[in-house]
Each structure stands twice: as structure tokens, then as C-alpha cells.
Amino acid sequence: MNTSTRLPLEGVRVIEFTHMVMGPTCGMILADLGAEVIKIEPPGGDKTRKLPGLGIGFFRTFNRNKKSVVLDINTPEGHAAAEELIGQCDVMLENFRPGLMAKLGLDYDTLSKKFPRLIYVSHKGFLPGPYEKRLALDEVVQMMGGLSYMTGPEGRPLRAGTSVNDIMGGMFGAIGVLAALRERDFTGHGQEVQSALFENCVFLAGQHMQQYAMTNEAPPPMPSRVSAWSVYDVFTLANGEQLFIGAVSDKQFVTLCDVIERPDLANDPQFADNAMRVAVRPELLAKLGDILKHHRVDELAPKLEAAGIPYAPIVRPDQLFDDPHLKQSGGLVPMQTDDGDTTEVVLLPLTMGGRRPGVRQALAKVGEHTQEILARLTGRAAA
């Protein structure tokens, strides 16, 4: 990325009181787009930095391009410094449990009286309503919001394989910030923006809700669904390798038959069109499975691509570090970590004028920017 090119949110200052995934995602998006994002960490640092297991990569993934300031907001001095910093910012982000920021006097109602231009973003489990005081996790709302039911086989609800609601909740928080900044240009006033896990998950399930509204039949889980297309499945090829193949039109089915050198299937009257093939889908898939188990992925994939047939290998996350498209398109870039190492990180999935908003600074060490930022406060410039 050309770091001399002005980014769209340059000049916007954000203060972030967040941890884990949802709030940090919002801050990262704003930071990648050019905002100065000041992450407030407690003494000892954000505990997300030290999560084990599946959480070990959270901090690196969602906290780039930010500055780190350590404050103990439970002390009078730390609280006063935090409040003064908030007054110097355009946007405040938080994602703590219901009622905590009000208890600290750092809620929107309190702060907006002093700072009427402040845009205050709360990332919560639920928007205002009967559930709003409940604690929520991504997995909790996936169960409540229809996603786990739709993902797993019948009788076995299964959470999605990543923190989809946390990440998308942060995205909607960032969208709210952009809209509120635009509205402030006209009104001169800030506002509170709320983004919530449960409502995010229900938004994801909305298409299935409308499916029921239109058919009066509860949609089956995805593994049990009646496919709209006859060839739309994962096949096991030679050496146990797997490949998804989707032939979603009559023309693509004929082309697929040519690629696997079985034109007899295309000429079979029972496979004449998609509706007829869907009616005998199990039989067709069994025939294709017997044929494809003799093909190698590295030989078949280029033929499918040349023929314009949708296909996909089954890829693990660790294999994406070597994905040629990600590497050549600039979707993976190096970032220096807080321990001095270097890792490749995934950029925002967008371009703006042909450029990818990227990494502009090393991942902040705990409290790395405390002195720099606190020097802006009244009476501390000479400290």
C-alpha cells in the first residue's frame, strides 16, 4: 500500500474500550481506513493478548493499526484521564457487559451531556428489549438465532467454524460510525450506535425466515436441504482428496459430463434437465461419485476451471497462507507483532480506487503509546 495516499478516515480520532473480538473488529476497520484508534488497556494489558487455544490469534487479528494506552479507569486519576481523552475523540467504542459503563460513569447518557458531538458505539449481546441484560457469546446467539440449527445435521445443532457474529457485529458497528459521522456533518451532534450479536445472527437467518413465510414449511438444516441443483456437492476423489463441484445449469451439466468424459450421462433421458436430475439426485450423485473417485484433484481442477464449472478444494485455514490468489492480489501482508516477530495478516476484503487499506504500524505493545497520548491532556504536555 502507498502510505503517502490519504485514507478516508484520516483526522477521525477513536477511543476504544474493548476486548475479545466484536469491539476490536470495529476499531480495526476504522483504523485500517485511516482513523487514529487509541485502545485503552487495563494495567497488565488486555487479557485477550494471552488467550490460549482457539482464542490465541484474536488479538493479532483484530487490533492492528491501533495505539495502546494503559489506564486504570477504576482509579480517580485513570478515570479522569480517560474522560479527558474521550472529550478529544470523535468516536468511542465499548463492548463490556450490560451496566458496567454506566457504573463507571462512562455511558452515553453521562458523556453526551459533556461531549454532545461524541459518537458512542456499544457492542452488545442484544439490542434493547426483553433479552438486553443477558450475557451473550457468539455460540449462544448462534443457537438462539437459527444459525446452529441450519448449519448442523438434523438433531445436531452446530456452531459455525468462526466467530461470525462477533466479526459481523463489529462490521455493523463500523457501518454505524460512518453513518453517524455523516449525520453529524449536518446536525452537529453525535449519537449512540448499538450493534448486537443476536440481531446480527437473526439477520443472517433472515433468508430462511422468508423461506418459511413463503412456503409455510420450516426450512430443513443445510445438510438435509432439498437442493435447487442436482450437482452441488462435495465429492471424494482419488487418494481421498475432496472437491466441491457445482453444475447449476443444464449447460454446465453437459459441460461437466464432457470434462469427465461421460457424455452418456448428458444423453440419458432421466437427466435431461435440472428438475429431472433433482428428482433422481441421490442416484445421479452416486454415479458421479463412482466416476470421480478415479480422478485426481490436481488433474481435474484445471479442466473444470477451463470449462467454467464452479469448483473448490476443501481448504484448511493454515493452507491459506500459501493461497496464490491471496498472495498475488495483496490480501496477505506482513505485520510486525508485539513480541518483535513478523506474521502475515489478512486485510479487509475490499479495494478503494484500486488500493487495499493495509498495515501501517507494528502491533502495539502493552501501553506503548501511553506517554504520547497522555501528553495531549491538560497539564501533562511537559510530563
Provide keyphrases for this structure.
alpha/beta; six-stranded parallel beta sheet; formyl-coa transferase, domain 3; 2 domains; Rossmann fold; 383 residues; three-stranded antiparallel beta sheet; 16 helices
Task: Sum this structure up briefly.
The protein has 383 residues and is an alpha/beta fold.
**Total number of helical segments?**
16
Number of extended strands: 11
Order of helices and strands: EHEHEHEHHEHHHEHEEHHHHHEHEEH
Low-pLDDT segments: none
Report the structural category. alpha/beta
Mean pLDDT: 95
Count of domains: 2
Task: Describe this structure as you would to a colleague.
By secondary structure, this protein is an alpha/beta fold. The chain has two domains: 13-205 and 323-374, Crotonobetainyl-coa:carnitine coa-transferase, domain 1 (Rossmann fold), CATH 3.40.50; 227-318, formyl-coa transferase, domain 3 (2-Layer Sandwich), CATH 3.30.1540. The chain contains 16 helices and eleven strands. The radius of gyration is 25 Å and the shape is elongated. The mean pLDDT is 95.
Write the layout of secondary structure elements.
Blueprint: E1 13-17, H1 22-32, E2 36-41, H2 58-62, E3 66-70, H3 76-87, E4 91-94, H4 100-103, H5 108-114, E5 119-124, H6 138-144, H7 147-151, H8 164-187, E6 192-196, H9 197-215, E7 231-236, E8 242-247, H10 250-259, H11 263-267, H12 274-279, H13 281-292, H14 297-307, E9 311-313, H15 324-329, E10 332-336, E11 342-346, H16 370-374
Parallel strand pairs: 1-2, 1-4, 2-3, 4-5, 5-6
Antiparallel strand pairs: 7-8, 8-9, 10-11
